[in-house]
């Protein structure tokens, strides 16, 4: 009988017979039980009308279920219509199915206890377990599972390839998942696109569900891929830190790489790439704390998590990864083929990058909780954010990337931080011996070539006795040569030539290597062109050219001498203490040249005017001489010399000279001076920035040498080990402050004071200091931070602690002064 009813229901479902609303529907909606009983007794078409659908596709029985009228349902079914208990509506739902959908417990109990079949499904092949699991109703599902003995509907699949367990996981109902798993639901079933239950649970942020599935399933499920991602990677992409924690606990591999997912920043990347790409800070924090080596694992496009976060503009993630050891100096290549470091990406895609870096640098300063005027104050500057953790790697790459950013405002706000200046000074202390060697090399070349040129000049002018006597340098060289019986003029020339060529043989390969390494950046520097000019002209003069006349050789030698001495000036600019004045000079020179170029039309105009007025007479014979004379007249007028020889009253010439005097000598010269030194404070800051940039450039050149593997291989092993130990600057610098005493420091006094001033500035701004590992912070401040008091009360407590510490410092100093005075009184007076 049950089989016949089931077959009849399927035939009706296939036919989808839909009749007009009958009077039986109207009676059911009205809820009139007496009228319903009357119709069931008198109407011969009663059973046929029970199978009719209304406009919503419901039979009268389904309408009664929707209305939750158990009395109507029992009246109909218990009057000889029990066989209709499994009747379907237009979409194939039985009465029990519909009762489960509306969570009508009373009706469900009745249908289950009166023969309703659980196995009947709707048109999409879903059964009542699918519905209960989709609703997340654990009590209802528990009751249905108890009636499922021998039928095993828990693993039935609907037309969407979903099991009841799938629906429960999608609903994130841990109670339903637990019931189905206990009843025998299979965890390993997945959809045709390989989306597993773990992917669904991770996607819906259900760590409890994940834990249940992993307890009942196999641990290998955590490595299954869906759309190129494992459940762990999907949870990282969604930012679900609790799910990430559970999946890692059950064996999820944080270093496993994704498949091809479309976005090149995360394609074939780790979990940290995904979290960094979408800015999920909590997931980033958990992953980095779980395995810090993730920071140094690139994806297949060689992009690191830090670079991914910086390119995506995720400020907090970038900040956290830098503080915890991500390397700023590593270089990646974008889709356009342009190389970029993390510094470049931060400067381009992080809002207000100078503020971001200042924050990073400020957080690298630690104190032990005392103000700077306290006797026990200790300050620690940490340089971990600037240098890689591996001491075998170069330390200045991040700073080189910093100075390559073409933004003067950014450089001024970033490079003048005491942390950068102190690190550069400590690095300088390590490498200054190599700087001395480079300077001695250039001095050797410059002095030897200058001596060579002077000696050659002395030989060429040997027949001009007056010139010899009037030139003290030549007289000295001649006297030295003639007074030494062992040294001839030829030997002096050969010795200086060998010195110049020998030093050039060392300088040349270094410059060529630097040009090949820096490429375009190398040729943007004036020094590079100076060195190239020196090397080319020196080789041409000493090696290639032998037939030139003396005048040509002298002219070329003069250019070489001027360039080599100028290069020595640029080398001296690398000194921490001397470089500031030299670079200030260069900055002022740039301003003066800019003014001269701006007013060049006026100068050229006066040059032609004076040449025409004076009819090409001395000193305005040609335009070039006239131009030179006008430039000289800008500082000295020579009025008497110009007009004393001219006959008559040349009013036009004197008028033009007066105009020149006003416009050029007074107006333009004062303007030039004013612009050159208009803002001394700004000029000093620019000079300091230029000095730091110059310092970084030169130290980077020295690092090219001392970190070069070829250079280390040709050195003796003991010397190589010594070089490795001395080339790296320390990763931190700690110093103590002694108020009212002269404290000794390896740093210059101005830099030492600047570092203290920065701490004072942060302290006054209620900066949240970290504690040094070696020392402990004030206990009361720590307790306040733990107890989560309001911010105002914490600030008041901190201010009180600061006042107490200052008072304690003053009292201690007074006590020391008293002791010293007492000791002086106790000493006997000298007779």
From TrEMBL:
<keyword id="KW-0812">Transmembrane</keyword>
<feature type="transmembrane region" description="Helical">
    <location>
        <begin position="556"/>
        <end position="580"/>
    </location>
</feature>
<feature type="transmembrane region" description="Helical">
    <location>
        <begin position="651"/>
        <end position="677"/>
    </location>
</feature>
<feature type="repeat" description="ANK">
    <location>
        <begin position="301"/>
        <end position="333"/>
    </location>
</feature>
<keyword id="KW-0325">Glycoprotein</keyword>
<protein>
    <submittedName>
        <fullName>TRPA5-1</fullName>
    </submittedName>
</protein>
<keyword id="KW-0472">Membrane</keyword>
<dbReference type="Pfam" id="PF00520">
    <property type="entry name" value="Ion_trans"/>
</dbReference>
<keyword id="KW-0040">ANK repeat</keyword>
<feature type="repeat" description="ANK">
    <location>
        <begin position="56"/>
        <end position="80"/>
    </location>
</feature>
<feature type="transmembrane region" description="Helical">
    <location>
        <begin position="433"/>
        <end position="457"/>
    </location>
</feature>
<feature type="repeat" description="ANK">
    <location>
        <begin position="227"/>
        <end position="259"/>
    </location>
</feature>
<keyword id="KW-1133">Transmembrane helix</keyword>
<dbReference type="InterPro" id="IPR005821">
    <property type="entry name" value="Ion_trans_dom"/>
</dbReference>
<keyword id="KW-0677">Repeat</keyword>
<dbReference type="InterPro" id="IPR052076">
    <property type="entry name" value="TRP_cation_channel"/>
</dbReference>
<keyword id="KW-0406">Ion transport</keyword>
<dbReference type="GO" id="GO:0005216">
    <property type="term" value="F:monoatomic ion channel activity"/>
</dbReference>
<feature type="transmembrane region" description="Helical">
    <location>
        <begin position="528"/>
        <end position="544"/>
    </location>
</feature>
<keyword id="KW-0716">Sensory transduction</keyword>
<dbReference type="Pfam" id="PF12796">
    <property type="entry name" value="Ank_2"/>
</dbReference>
<dbReference type="GO" id="GO:0034703">
    <property type="term" value="C:cation channel complex"/>
</dbReference>
<feature type="domain" description="Ion transport">
    <location>
        <begin position="445"/>
        <end position="686"/>
    </location>
</feature>
<keyword id="KW-0407">Ion channel</keyword>
<dbReference type="InterPro" id="IPR036770">
    <property type="entry name" value="Ankyrin_rpt-contain_sf"/>
</dbReference>
<keyword id="KW-0813">Transport</keyword>
<dbReference type="InterPro" id="IPR002110">
    <property type="entry name" value="Ankyrin_rpt"/>
</dbReference>
<feature type="repeat" description="ANK">
    <location>
        <begin position="193"/>
        <end position="225"/>
    </location>
</feature>
<feature type="transmembrane region" description="Helical">
    <location>
        <begin position="592"/>
        <end position="614"/>
    </location>
</feature>
């Amino acid at each position: 009988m049950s089989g016949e009813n089931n077959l009849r229901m399927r035939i009706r479902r296939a036919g989808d017979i839909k009749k007009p609303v009958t009077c039986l529907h109207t009676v059911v909606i009205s809820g009139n039980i007496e009228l319903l009983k009357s119709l069931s007794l008198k109407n011969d078409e009663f059973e046929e009308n029970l199978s009719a659908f209304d406009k919503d596709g419901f039979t009268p029985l389904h309408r009664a279920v929707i209305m939750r009228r158990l009395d109507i349902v029992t009246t109909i079914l218990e009057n000889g219509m029990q066989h209709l208990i499994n009747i379907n509506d237009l979409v194939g739902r039985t009465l029990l199915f519909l009762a489960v959908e509306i969570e009508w417990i009373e009706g469900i109990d009745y249908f289950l206890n009166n023969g309703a079949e659980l196995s009947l499904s709707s048109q999409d092949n879903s059964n009542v377990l699918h519905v209960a699991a989709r609703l997340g109703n654990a009590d209802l599902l528990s009751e249905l599972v108890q009636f499922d003995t021998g039928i095993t509907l828990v693993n039935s699949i609907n037309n969407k390839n979903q099991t009841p367990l799938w629906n429960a996981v999608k609903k994130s109902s841990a109670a339903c998942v637990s019931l189905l798993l206990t009843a025998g639901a299979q965890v390993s079933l997945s959809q045709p696109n390989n989306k597993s239950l773990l992917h669904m649970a991770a996607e819906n942020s259900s760590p409890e569900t994940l834990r249940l599935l992993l307890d009942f399933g196999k641990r290998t499920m955590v490595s299954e891929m869906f759309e190129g991602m494992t459940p762990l990677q999907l949870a990282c992409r969604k930012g679900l830190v609790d799910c990430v924690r559970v999946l890692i606990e059950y064996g999820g591999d944080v270093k496993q790489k994704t498949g091809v997912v479309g976005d090149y920043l995360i394609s074939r990347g780790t979990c940290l790439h995904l979290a960094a790409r979408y800015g999920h800070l909590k997931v980033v924090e958990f992953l980095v704390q779980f395995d810090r080596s993730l920071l140094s694992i690139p994806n297949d496009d060689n992009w690191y998590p830090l670079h991914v976060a910086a390119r995506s503009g995720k400020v907090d993630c970038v900040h956290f990864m830098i503080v915890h050891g991500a390397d700023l100096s590593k270089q990646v290549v974008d889709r356009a083929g342009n190389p970029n470091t993390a510094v470049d990406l931060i400067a381009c895609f992080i809002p207000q990058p100078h503020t971001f870096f200042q924050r990073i640098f400020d957080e690298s300063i630690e104190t032990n909780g005392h103000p700077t005027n306290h006797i026990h104050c200790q300050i620690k500057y940490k340089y971990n954010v600037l240098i890689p953790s591996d001491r075998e790697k170069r330390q200045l790459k991040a700073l080189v990337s910093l100075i390559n950013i073409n933004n003067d405002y950014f450089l001024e706000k970033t490079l003048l931080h005491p942390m950068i200046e102190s690190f550069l000074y400590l690095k300088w202390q390590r490498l200054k011996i190599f700087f001395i060697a480079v300077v001695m090399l250039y001095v050797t070349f410059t002095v030897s070539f200058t001596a060579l040129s002077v000696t050659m000049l002395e030989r060429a002018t040997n027949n001009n006795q007056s010139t010899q006597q009037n030139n003290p340098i030549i007289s000295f060289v001649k006297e030295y040569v003639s007074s030494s019986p062992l040294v001839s003029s030829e030997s002096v020339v050969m010795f200086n030539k060998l010195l110049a060529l020998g030093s050039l043989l060392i300088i040349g390969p270094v410059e060529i290597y630097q040009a090949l390494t820096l490429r375009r950046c190398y040729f943007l520097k004036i020094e590079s062109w100076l060195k190239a000019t020196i090397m080319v002209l020196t080789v041409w003069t000493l090696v290639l050219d032998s037939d030139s006349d003396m005048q040509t050789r002298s002219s070329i030698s003069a250019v070489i001498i001027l360039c080599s001495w100028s290069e020595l000036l640029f080398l001296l600019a690398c000194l921490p203490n001397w470089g500031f004045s030299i670079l200030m000079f260069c900055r002022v020179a740039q301003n003066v040249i800019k003014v001269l170029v701006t007013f060049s039309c006026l100068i050229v105009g006066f040059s032609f005017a004076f040449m025409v007025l004076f009819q090409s007479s001395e000193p305005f014979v040609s335009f070039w001489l006239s131009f030179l004379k006008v430039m000289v007249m800008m500082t000295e007028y020579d009025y008497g010399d110009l007009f004393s020889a001219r006959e008559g009253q040349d009013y036009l010439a004197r008028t033009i000279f007066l105009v020149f005097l006003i416009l050029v000598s007074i107006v333009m010269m004062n303007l030039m001076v004013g612009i050159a030194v208009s803002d001394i404070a700004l000029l000093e800051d620019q000079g300091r920035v230029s000095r730091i940039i110059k310092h970084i450039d030169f130290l980077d050149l020295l690092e090219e040498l001392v970190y070069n593997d070829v250079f280390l291989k040709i050195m003796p092993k003991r010397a190589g080990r010594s070089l490795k130990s001395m080339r790296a600057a320390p990763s931190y610098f700690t110093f103590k402050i002694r108020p009212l005493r002269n404290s000794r420091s390896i740093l210059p006094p101005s830099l030492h004071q600047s570092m203290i001033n920065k701490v004072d500035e942060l302290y006054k701004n209620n900066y949240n200091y970290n504690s040094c590992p070696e020392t402990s912070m004030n206990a009361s401040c720590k307790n306040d931070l733990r107890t989560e008091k309001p911010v105002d009360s914490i600030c008041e407590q901190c201010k009180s602690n600061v006042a107490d510490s200052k008072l304690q410092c003053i009292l201690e100093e007074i006590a020391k002064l008293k002791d010293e005075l007492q000791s002086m009184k106790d000493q006997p007076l000298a007779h």
